[in-house]
Write a structure and sequence with these properties.
Elements lengths: L1 H15 L9 E6 L14 H10 L4 E3 L5 E3 L2 E6 L5 E6 L13 H13 L12 E8 L2 E6 L6 H4 L10 H7 L13 E6 L5 E5 L13 E6 L3 H9 L5 E2 L7 H5 L4 E7 L3 E6 L13 H9 L3 H8 L5 E2 L21 H10 L5 E7 L3 H15 L3 E7 L2 H10 L4 E6 L10 H4 L13 H11 L4 H18 L2 E6 L1 E7 L2 E2 L15 E2 L1
Parallel strand pairs: 1-10, 1-11, 15-16, 15-17
Antiparallel strand pairs: 2-3, 4-5, 5-7, 6-7, 8-9, 9-10, 11-19, 12-19, 13-17, 13-18, 14-18, 20-21
Length: 500
Protein backbone atom coordinates (compact mmCIF):
# COMPACT_ATOMS: atom_id res chain seq x y z
CA UNK A 1 0.00 0.00 0.00
CA UNK A 2 2.87 2.36 0.75
CA UNK A 3 4.28 1.94 -2.75
CA UNK A 4 0.89 2.44 -4.40
CA UNK A 5 0.37 5.61 -2.40
CA UNK A 6 3.80 6.82 -3.52
CA UNK A 7 2.71 6.31 -7.11
CA UNK A 8 -0.52 8.24 -6.57
CA UNK A 9 1.37 11.10 -4.94
CA UNK A 10 3.85 11.14 -7.82
CA UNK A 11 0.97 11.26 -10.28
CA UNK A 12 -0.71 14.05 -8.30
CA UNK A 13 2.54 16.00 -8.38
CA UNK A 14 2.59 15.75 -12.17
CA UNK A 15 -1.04 16.86 -12.42
CA UNK A 16 -0.55 19.80 -10.10
CA UNK A 17 2.39 20.96 -12.18
CA UNK A 18 -0.08 22.05 -14.82
CA UNK A 19 1.84 20.09 -17.43
CA UNK A 20 -1.19 18.11 -18.60
CA UNK A 21 -3.07 21.31 -19.34
CA UNK A 22 -0.17 22.79 -21.28
CA UNK A 23 -0.18 23.13 -25.05
CA UNK A 24 3.42 22.00 -25.08
CA UNK A 25 4.47 18.52 -26.12
CA UNK A 26 5.69 17.02 -22.86
CA UNK A 27 7.63 13.77 -22.48
CA UNK A 28 7.35 12.31 -18.95
CA UNK A 29 9.97 9.67 -18.19
CA UNK A 30 9.96 7.29 -15.24
CA UNK A 31 13.48 6.62 -13.97
CA UNK A 32 14.50 3.55 -12.00
CA UNK A 33 16.39 5.58 -9.38
CA UNK A 34 17.44 9.10 -8.49
CA UNK A 35 20.62 10.39 -10.16
CA UNK A 36 23.69 11.60 -8.34
CA UNK A 37 25.42 14.82 -9.45
CA UNK A 38 24.31 15.87 -12.95
CA UNK A 39 27.81 17.11 -13.68
CA UNK A 40 29.52 14.93 -16.34
CA UNK A 41 32.82 15.09 -14.45
CA UNK A 42 31.40 14.09 -11.07
CA UNK A 43 28.67 11.60 -11.89
CA UNK A 44 29.07 7.85 -11.49
CA UNK A 45 25.53 6.36 -11.51
CA UNK A 46 24.08 4.82 -14.69
CA UNK A 47 20.79 6.68 -14.32
CA UNK A 48 22.75 9.94 -14.40
CA UNK A 49 24.03 9.04 -17.87
CA UNK A 50 20.38 8.88 -18.96
CA UNK A 51 19.67 12.30 -17.49
CA UNK A 52 22.86 13.83 -18.89
CA UNK A 53 22.10 12.53 -22.39
CA UNK A 54 18.94 14.66 -22.36
CA UNK A 55 20.80 17.97 -22.22
CA UNK A 56 24.55 17.36 -22.72
CA UNK A 57 25.63 16.52 -26.26
CA UNK A 58 28.88 14.58 -26.64
CA UNK A 59 31.68 15.00 -29.15
CA UNK A 60 30.65 11.62 -30.58
CA UNK A 61 27.88 9.11 -29.97
CA UNK A 62 27.23 5.49 -30.89
CA UNK A 63 24.66 4.03 -33.25
CA UNK A 64 22.55 0.91 -32.80
CA UNK A 65 25.42 -1.27 -34.03
CA UNK A 66 27.93 0.36 -31.63
CA UNK A 67 29.68 2.33 -34.35
CA UNK A 68 30.76 5.93 -33.69
CA UNK A 69 28.80 8.84 -35.17
CA UNK A 70 29.62 12.58 -35.10
CA UNK A 71 27.84 14.95 -32.74
CA UNK A 72 29.64 18.09 -31.53
CA UNK A 73 32.73 16.93 -33.40
CA UNK A 74 32.29 16.27 -37.11
CA UNK A 75 35.40 14.14 -37.57
CA UNK A 76 38.65 12.92 -36.03
CA UNK A 77 42.07 11.94 -37.33
CA UNK A 78 44.99 10.06 -35.78
CA UNK A 79 48.61 10.97 -36.40
CA UNK A 80 50.81 8.30 -38.00
CA UNK A 81 52.49 7.44 -34.69
CA UNK A 82 49.15 7.28 -32.85
CA UNK A 83 50.27 9.95 -30.35
CA UNK A 84 48.01 12.78 -31.52
CA UNK A 85 44.26 12.84 -32.08
CA UNK A 86 42.72 15.81 -33.88
CA UNK A 87 39.03 16.79 -33.74
CA UNK A 88 37.20 18.99 -36.21
CA UNK A 89 34.26 20.62 -34.42
CA UNK A 90 30.81 21.36 -35.76
CA UNK A 91 30.48 25.09 -36.59
CA UNK A 92 27.94 27.50 -35.07
CA UNK A 93 27.21 25.47 -31.94
CA UNK A 94 26.37 27.37 -28.76
CA UNK A 95 25.87 26.38 -25.14
CA UNK A 96 22.56 27.00 -23.39
CA UNK A 97 23.94 30.30 -22.03
CA UNK A 98 24.79 31.50 -25.55
CA UNK A 99 28.54 30.97 -25.22
CA UNK A 100 30.24 29.46 -28.30
CA UNK A 101 31.34 25.84 -28.36
CA UNK A 102 34.77 26.13 -29.90
CA UNK A 103 38.24 24.62 -29.56
CA UNK A 104 38.98 26.65 -26.43
CA UNK A 105 35.82 25.30 -24.80
CA UNK A 106 36.80 21.72 -25.63
CA UNK A 107 40.28 22.28 -24.20
CA UNK A 108 38.73 23.69 -21.04
CA UNK A 109 36.42 20.68 -20.69
CA UNK A 110 39.21 18.15 -21.05
CA UNK A 111 41.38 19.92 -18.48
CA UNK A 112 38.40 20.31 -16.13
CA UNK A 113 37.62 16.60 -16.39
CA UNK A 114 41.25 15.85 -15.53
CA UNK A 115 41.58 18.19 -12.55
CA UNK A 116 38.31 19.14 -10.83
CA UNK A 117 38.00 17.86 -7.27
CA UNK A 118 36.20 14.51 -7.20
CA UNK A 119 36.39 13.88 -10.95
CA UNK A 120 35.65 10.36 -12.18
CA UNK A 121 36.92 11.17 -15.67
CA UNK A 122 40.60 11.56 -14.78
CA UNK A 123 41.58 7.89 -15.36
CA UNK A 124 39.78 7.88 -18.72
CA UNK A 125 41.77 10.90 -19.90
CA UNK A 126 45.11 9.89 -18.36
CA UNK A 127 46.81 9.36 -21.77
CA UNK A 128 46.34 13.04 -22.68
CA UNK A 129 49.41 15.09 -21.71
CA UNK A 130 48.40 18.36 -23.41
CA UNK A 131 45.70 19.96 -25.59
CA UNK A 132 46.41 22.34 -28.50
CA UNK A 133 43.93 24.81 -29.95
CA UNK A 134 44.87 24.63 -33.64
CA UNK A 135 42.18 27.06 -34.74
CA UNK A 136 38.63 28.05 -33.79
CA UNK A 137 37.19 24.63 -34.65
CA UNK A 138 40.23 22.34 -34.45
CA UNK A 139 41.58 20.64 -31.31
CA UNK A 140 44.65 18.41 -31.11
CA UNK A 141 45.20 16.04 -28.19
CA UNK A 142 48.82 15.12 -27.54
CA UNK A 143 49.34 11.71 -25.89
CA UNK A 144 52.13 9.99 -24.01
CA UNK A 145 51.41 6.83 -26.01
CA UNK A 146 48.78 5.59 -28.47
CA UNK A 147 45.36 5.18 -26.84
CA UNK A 148 43.02 2.78 -28.62
CA UNK A 149 39.90 3.58 -26.54
CA UNK A 150 40.14 7.37 -26.64
CA UNK A 151 37.45 8.03 -29.26
CA UNK A 152 35.03 5.78 -27.37
CA UNK A 153 35.74 7.77 -24.20
CA UNK A 154 34.59 10.94 -25.95
CA UNK A 155 31.37 9.12 -26.86
CA UNK A 156 30.50 9.06 -23.15
CA UNK A 157 30.58 11.47 -20.20
CA UNK A 158 34.12 12.71 -20.92
CA UNK A 159 32.82 13.89 -24.30
CA UNK A 160 29.91 15.87 -22.83
CA UNK A 161 30.80 19.52 -23.17
CA UNK A 162 29.78 22.01 -20.46
CA UNK A 163 29.85 25.80 -20.70
CA UNK A 164 33.23 27.07 -19.41
CA UNK A 165 31.56 30.28 -18.22
CA UNK A 166 28.98 28.41 -16.12
CA UNK A 167 31.52 25.86 -14.90
CA UNK A 168 33.87 28.57 -13.71
CA UNK A 169 31.07 30.37 -11.91
CA UNK A 170 29.72 27.28 -10.12
CA UNK A 171 32.82 25.09 -9.65
CA UNK A 172 31.98 21.79 -7.93
CA UNK A 173 28.36 22.99 -7.65
CA UNK A 174 27.92 22.99 -11.43
CA UNK A 175 25.45 20.09 -11.13
CA UNK A 176 22.98 22.37 -9.34
CA UNK A 177 22.45 24.47 -12.49
CA UNK A 178 24.22 22.70 -15.37
CA UNK A 179 24.72 24.35 -18.75
CA UNK A 180 25.58 22.21 -21.77
CA UNK A 181 25.01 22.22 -25.54
CA UNK A 182 22.32 19.56 -25.94
CA UNK A 183 18.74 19.51 -27.31
CA UNK A 184 17.17 20.45 -23.97
CA UNK A 185 18.26 22.94 -21.32
CA UNK A 186 18.05 22.44 -17.58
CA UNK A 187 15.16 24.17 -15.77
CA UNK A 188 14.99 22.72 -12.27
CA UNK A 189 15.56 19.74 -10.03
CA UNK A 190 13.81 18.86 -6.79
CA UNK A 191 15.84 16.40 -4.67
CA UNK A 192 14.17 12.98 -4.84
CA UNK A 193 11.64 14.64 -7.14
CA UNK A 194 11.21 15.89 -10.67
CA UNK A 195 13.96 17.05 -13.02
CA UNK A 196 12.67 19.39 -15.74
CA UNK A 197 14.17 20.37 -19.10
CA UNK A 198 12.91 22.57 -21.91
CA UNK A 199 13.70 22.50 -25.60
CA UNK A 200 16.72 24.62 -26.54
CA UNK A 201 15.67 26.66 -29.53
CA UNK A 202 19.26 27.38 -30.63
CA UNK A 203 20.25 23.70 -30.65
CA UNK A 204 22.29 22.83 -33.73
CA UNK A 205 19.91 19.97 -34.64
CA UNK A 206 16.70 21.62 -33.43
CA UNK A 207 14.68 20.50 -36.48
CA UNK A 208 15.06 16.93 -35.23
CA UNK A 209 13.61 17.73 -31.77
CA UNK A 210 9.81 17.45 -31.60
CA UNK A 211 9.31 17.60 -27.83
CA UNK A 212 9.04 20.89 -25.93
CA UNK A 213 9.50 19.76 -22.35
CA UNK A 214 10.97 16.71 -20.60
CA UNK A 215 10.07 15.75 -17.04
CA UNK A 216 11.90 12.94 -15.25
CA UNK A 217 10.84 11.36 -11.98
CA UNK A 218 12.44 8.45 -10.11
CA UNK A 219 10.10 5.68 -9.00
CA UNK A 220 12.11 2.81 -7.54
CA UNK A 221 9.36 0.23 -7.43
CA UNK A 222 8.97 -1.32 -10.93
CA UNK A 223 5.31 -2.20 -10.34
CA UNK A 224 4.45 1.41 -9.47
CA UNK A 225 6.54 2.68 -12.37
CA UNK A 226 4.65 0.45 -14.82
CA UNK A 227 1.31 1.36 -13.24
CA UNK A 228 2.08 5.06 -13.77
CA UNK A 229 2.86 4.33 -17.41
CA UNK A 230 -0.42 2.46 -17.86
CA UNK A 231 -2.38 5.30 -16.26
CA UNK A 232 -0.76 7.92 -18.50
CA UNK A 233 1.37 9.63 -15.84
CA UNK A 234 4.52 8.53 -17.71
CA UNK A 235 5.09 8.32 -21.43
CA UNK A 236 8.17 6.11 -21.16
CA UNK A 237 9.84 4.10 -18.40
CA UNK A 238 13.40 2.84 -18.42
CA UNK A 239 14.69 -0.51 -17.15
CA UNK A 240 11.45 -2.42 -17.32
CA UNK A 241 11.76 -5.56 -15.18
CA UNK A 242 11.88 -8.84 -17.15
CA UNK A 243 8.96 -10.03 -15.03
CA UNK A 244 6.77 -7.28 -16.57
CA UNK A 245 7.64 -7.91 -20.24
CA UNK A 246 4.64 -10.16 -20.95
CA UNK A 247 2.26 -7.69 -19.35
CA UNK A 248 3.51 -4.87 -21.58
CA UNK A 249 3.38 -7.03 -24.70
CA UNK A 250 -0.26 -7.87 -23.94
CA UNK A 251 -1.32 -4.22 -23.48
CA UNK A 252 -2.50 -2.60 -26.73
CA UNK A 253 -1.86 0.85 -25.25
CA UNK A 254 1.85 0.18 -24.71
CA UNK A 255 4.92 -0.53 -26.77
CA UNK A 256 8.04 -2.47 -25.82
CA UNK A 257 11.59 -1.67 -26.94
CA UNK A 258 14.39 -4.15 -26.37
CA UNK A 259 18.10 -4.38 -27.11
CA UNK A 260 21.01 -6.61 -26.06
CA UNK A 261 23.05 -5.07 -23.26
CA UNK A 262 26.79 -4.40 -23.28
CA UNK A 263 26.95 -4.37 -19.47
CA UNK A 264 26.73 -6.97 -16.74
CA UNK A 265 25.45 -7.56 -13.21
CA UNK A 266 28.12 -8.07 -10.58
CA UNK A 267 29.16 -8.38 -6.97
CA UNK A 268 32.21 -6.45 -5.74
CA UNK A 269 34.21 -7.39 -2.65
CA UNK A 270 36.15 -5.02 -0.42
CA UNK A 271 39.64 -6.52 -0.67
CA UNK A 272 41.74 -3.48 0.21
CA UNK A 273 39.66 -0.35 0.75
CA UNK A 274 39.94 0.53 4.44
CA UNK A 275 39.27 -1.27 7.70
CA UNK A 276 36.29 -3.30 6.43
CA UNK A 277 38.46 -5.07 3.84
CA UNK A 278 39.68 -7.66 6.35
CA UNK A 279 36.65 -9.95 6.02
CA UNK A 280 37.04 -10.54 2.26
CA UNK A 281 40.84 -10.54 1.88
CA UNK A 282 41.27 -14.30 1.51
CA UNK A 283 41.01 -15.29 -2.16
CA UNK A 284 39.81 -18.77 -1.17
CA UNK A 285 36.72 -17.30 0.47
CA UNK A 286 35.89 -15.26 -2.63
CA UNK A 287 36.41 -18.30 -4.84
CA UNK A 288 34.13 -20.35 -2.56
CA UNK A 289 31.40 -17.73 -2.98
CA UNK A 290 31.86 -17.88 -6.75
CA UNK A 291 31.71 -21.69 -6.86
CA UNK A 292 28.51 -21.67 -4.80
CA UNK A 293 26.58 -19.79 -7.52
CA UNK A 294 24.67 -21.46 -10.34
CA UNK A 295 24.41 -18.58 -12.79
CA UNK A 296 21.97 -20.27 -15.15
CA UNK A 297 19.58 -21.08 -12.31
CA UNK A 298 20.03 -17.54 -10.97
CA UNK A 299 18.84 -15.85 -14.17
CA UNK A 300 16.05 -18.36 -14.73
CA UNK A 301 14.59 -17.76 -11.28
CA UNK A 302 15.25 -14.02 -10.94
CA UNK A 303 14.78 -12.83 -14.54
CA UNK A 304 12.31 -15.20 -16.19
CA UNK A 305 15.18 -16.64 -18.23
CA UNK A 306 15.37 -13.40 -20.25
CA UNK A 307 18.90 -12.62 -19.06
CA UNK A 308 21.96 -14.81 -19.65
CA UNK A 309 24.26 -16.09 -16.95
CA UNK A 310 27.84 -14.96 -17.40
CA UNK A 311 31.12 -14.49 -15.57
CA UNK A 312 33.04 -12.01 -17.73
CA UNK A 313 33.26 -8.21 -17.75
CA UNK A 314 33.15 -8.10 -21.56
CA UNK A 315 29.73 -9.20 -22.78
CA UNK A 316 29.02 -11.67 -25.60
CA UNK A 317 28.89 -10.00 -28.97
CA UNK A 318 32.06 -8.05 -28.36
CA UNK A 319 35.12 -9.00 -30.39
CA UNK A 320 37.02 -9.04 -27.08
CA UNK A 321 34.72 -11.52 -25.32
CA UNK A 322 36.56 -14.72 -24.34
CA UNK A 323 34.72 -17.73 -25.78
CA UNK A 324 35.18 -19.99 -22.76
CA UNK A 325 32.55 -21.86 -20.72
CA UNK A 326 30.79 -20.04 -17.91
CA UNK A 327 32.01 -20.94 -14.39
CA UNK A 328 30.10 -24.01 -13.15
CA UNK A 329 28.77 -24.47 -9.63
CA UNK A 330 30.83 -26.75 -7.37
CA UNK A 331 29.53 -26.77 -3.79
CA UNK A 332 31.94 -29.48 -2.59
CA UNK A 333 34.96 -27.51 -3.84
CA UNK A 334 33.53 -24.37 -2.20
CA UNK A 335 33.28 -26.17 1.14
CA UNK A 336 36.85 -27.42 0.78
CA UNK A 337 38.16 -23.93 0.12
CA UNK A 338 36.35 -22.58 3.17
CA UNK A 339 37.82 -25.37 5.28
CA UNK A 340 41.33 -24.56 4.01
CA UNK A 341 40.74 -20.90 4.87
CA UNK A 342 39.46 -21.76 8.35
CA UNK A 343 36.07 -20.22 7.49
CA UNK A 344 33.68 -23.17 7.46
CA UNK A 345 30.84 -21.02 8.85
CA UNK A 346 31.54 -17.79 7.02
CA UNK A 347 29.25 -14.74 7.36
CA UNK A 348 29.47 -11.54 5.34
CA UNK A 349 27.28 -8.56 4.49
CA UNK A 350 26.17 -7.52 1.03
CA UNK A 351 24.69 -4.12 0.21
CA UNK A 352 21.80 -4.55 -2.23
CA UNK A 353 19.71 -1.88 -3.92
CA UNK A 354 15.98 -1.87 -3.08
CA UNK A 355 14.96 -2.61 -6.68
CA UNK A 356 13.21 -5.92 -7.27
CA UNK A 357 15.79 -6.81 -9.94
CA UNK A 358 18.54 -6.77 -7.31
CA UNK A 359 16.65 -7.95 -4.26
CA UNK A 360 15.41 -11.15 -5.90
CA UNK A 361 18.77 -12.28 -7.35
CA UNK A 362 20.40 -11.43 -4.03
CA UNK A 363 17.91 -13.67 -2.25
CA UNK A 364 18.51 -16.48 -4.76
CA UNK A 365 22.25 -16.09 -4.30
CA UNK A 366 21.80 -16.05 -0.51
CA UNK A 367 20.04 -19.43 -0.70
CA UNK A 368 22.74 -20.90 -2.94
CA UNK A 369 25.55 -19.75 -0.65
CA UNK A 370 23.82 -21.28 2.38
CA UNK A 371 24.32 -24.73 0.84
CA UNK A 372 28.07 -24.18 1.11
CA UNK A 373 27.84 -23.01 4.72
CA UNK A 374 28.04 -19.30 3.83
CA UNK A 375 25.69 -16.84 5.51
CA UNK A 376 25.13 -13.77 3.33
CA UNK A 377 23.38 -10.93 5.15
CA UNK A 378 21.47 -8.58 2.85
CA UNK A 379 21.73 -4.88 3.71
CA UNK A 380 19.20 -2.99 1.55
CA UNK A 381 20.76 0.34 0.54
CA UNK A 382 19.57 2.99 -1.92
CA UNK A 383 21.77 3.26 -5.03
CA UNK A 384 23.50 6.64 -4.52
CA UNK A 385 24.05 5.87 -0.82
CA UNK A 386 25.51 2.51 -1.79
CA UNK A 387 27.93 4.08 -4.27
CA UNK A 388 29.14 6.59 -1.69
CA UNK A 389 29.55 3.91 1.00
CA UNK A 390 31.54 1.81 -1.47
CA UNK A 391 33.74 4.76 -2.39
CA UNK A 392 34.55 5.30 1.29
CA UNK A 393 35.27 1.60 1.86
CA UNK A 394 32.29 1.25 4.20
CA UNK A 395 31.22 -2.18 2.88
CA UNK A 396 32.16 -5.86 2.72
CA UNK A 397 30.46 -6.53 -0.60
CA UNK A 398 27.73 -5.05 -2.76
CA UNK A 399 25.60 -6.06 -5.74
CA UNK A 400 25.05 -3.72 -8.66
CA UNK A 401 25.52 -3.56 -12.43
CA UNK A 402 27.81 -1.86 -14.91
CA UNK A 403 26.11 -0.47 -17.99
CA UNK A 404 29.07 -1.41 -20.15
CA UNK A 405 31.17 0.44 -22.69
CA UNK A 406 31.79 -0.14 -26.38
CA UNK A 407 35.54 -0.40 -25.89
CA UNK A 408 36.79 -3.04 -23.37
CA UNK A 409 38.97 -0.42 -21.69
CA UNK A 410 35.78 1.09 -20.25
CA UNK A 411 34.93 -2.21 -18.55
CA UNK A 412 38.40 -2.87 -17.17
CA UNK A 413 40.92 -0.08 -16.63
CA UNK A 414 38.98 2.07 -14.17
CA UNK A 415 38.02 -1.01 -12.10
CA UNK A 416 41.21 -3.04 -11.93
CA UNK A 417 44.12 -0.60 -11.91
CA UNK A 418 45.35 0.18 -8.42
CA UNK A 419 44.29 3.79 -7.88
CA UNK A 420 41.42 4.24 -10.32
CA UNK A 421 38.23 6.02 -9.32
CA UNK A 422 35.91 3.04 -9.89
CA UNK A 423 38.20 0.64 -8.04
CA UNK A 424 36.17 0.78 -4.84
CA UNK A 425 37.36 -2.74 -4.04
CA UNK A 426 40.90 -1.59 -3.30
CA UNK A 427 42.14 -4.29 -5.70
CA UNK A 428 45.76 -3.97 -6.79
CA UNK A 429 47.64 -6.48 -8.92
CA UNK A 430 50.63 -4.74 -10.59
CA UNK A 431 50.72 -7.31 -13.40
CA UNK A 432 47.06 -6.71 -14.21
CA UNK A 433 47.69 -2.95 -14.24
CA UNK A 434 50.69 -3.39 -16.51
CA UNK A 435 48.69 -5.47 -18.99
CA UNK A 436 45.65 -3.19 -19.02
CA UNK A 437 47.93 -0.21 -19.65
CA UNK A 438 49.56 -2.12 -22.49
CA UNK A 439 46.14 -2.97 -23.94
CA UNK A 440 45.28 0.74 -23.99
CA UNK A 441 48.37 1.44 -26.07
CA UNK A 442 47.88 -1.42 -28.55
CA UNK A 443 46.03 -0.51 -31.72
CA UNK A 444 45.95 -3.94 -33.43
CA UNK A 445 42.70 -5.67 -32.33
CA UNK A 446 44.03 -9.24 -32.35
CA UNK A 447 47.07 -8.36 -30.28
CA UNK A 448 44.90 -6.31 -27.96
CA UNK A 449 42.46 -9.18 -27.46
CA UNK A 450 45.29 -11.47 -26.38
CA UNK A 451 46.47 -8.90 -23.82
CA UNK A 452 42.96 -8.57 -22.36
CA UNK A 453 42.69 -12.34 -22.03
CA UNK A 454 45.97 -12.49 -20.10
CA UNK A 455 45.00 -9.60 -17.81
CA UNK A 456 41.49 -10.83 -17.14
CA UNK A 457 42.59 -14.42 -16.51
CA UNK A 458 44.66 -13.03 -13.64
CA UNK A 459 41.73 -10.94 -12.44
CA UNK A 460 39.34 -13.88 -12.60
CA UNK A 461 41.73 -15.93 -10.48
CA UNK A 462 41.97 -13.15 -7.87
CA UNK A 463 38.18 -12.63 -7.86
CA UNK A 464 37.95 -9.10 -6.41
CA UNK A 465 34.50 -9.15 -8.01
CA UNK A 466 32.17 -11.61 -9.71
CA UNK A 467 30.27 -11.04 -12.94
CA UNK A 468 26.89 -12.77 -12.71
CA UNK A 469 24.61 -12.02 -15.66
CA UNK A 470 24.16 -10.18 -18.95
CA UNK A 471 20.91 -8.26 -19.32
CA UNK A 472 18.46 -7.74 -22.11
CA UNK A 473 17.42 -4.09 -22.04
CA UNK A 474 13.69 -3.38 -21.93
CA UNK A 475 11.88 -0.05 -22.06
CA UNK A 476 8.14 0.42 -22.14
CA UNK A 477 6.28 3.38 -23.54
CA UNK A 478 2.85 4.65 -24.45
CA UNK A 479 1.62 3.69 -27.90
CA UNK A 480 1.51 7.45 -28.56
CA UNK A 481 5.32 7.58 -28.60
CA UNK A 482 6.67 7.31 -32.12
CA UNK A 483 10.14 6.69 -33.59
CA UNK A 484 11.86 5.72 -30.33
CA UNK A 485 14.89 3.43 -30.70
CA UNK A 486 16.70 1.67 -27.86
CA UNK A 487 20.46 1.23 -28.21
CA UNK A 488 22.60 -1.38 -26.41
CA UNK A 489 23.92 1.19 -23.92
CA UNK A 490 20.42 1.71 -22.47
CA UNK A 491 20.43 5.52 -22.78
CA UNK A 492 17.38 7.54 -23.80
CA UNK A 493 17.85 9.53 -27.00
CA UNK A 494 14.99 11.83 -27.97
CA UNK A 495 16.22 12.95 -31.38
CA UNK A 496 13.44 12.25 -33.88
CA UNK A 497 11.00 11.06 -31.20
CA UNK A 498 7.41 12.31 -31.37
CA UNK A 499 4.35 12.02 -29.14
CA UNK A 500 1.22 11.54 -31.23
Amino acid sequence: MRYKLAGVLAAASLLLSGGLASAQTVMRIGLNDDPDSIDPALSQAFVTRIVLTTFCDKLFDIDAKLGFVPRLAESYEWSEDGKALTFKLRPNVVFHDGEPLNAEAVKYNIQRNQTIEGTFRKPELAPIKSVDVVDELTVRLNLDAPSAPLVSIFADRAGMMVSPKAAEALGVNFGSAPVCAGPFKFVSRVPQGRIIFEKFKDYWDVDNIHIDRVEMLAVNDPTVRLSNLQSGQFDLIERLSPTDVKQVEADANLKLARAPDIGYGYVQFNVGNGARAEKMKDQRVREAIDLSIDREALVNVAFEGLYAGGDQVIAPGSFYHDERPVQKRDVERAKQLLKEAGQENFTFEMMVRPDRDFQVPAQVMQSMLAESGINMVINTTENVTQLEAARQGNFESYMSFWSGRVDPDGNTFAFYTCKSANNRMGYCNPKVEELLTKARQTIDPEARKAIYKEALDLKYHDRPDLSLWYRQLFMAMSSKVENYHLFPDGLIRLQGVKIN
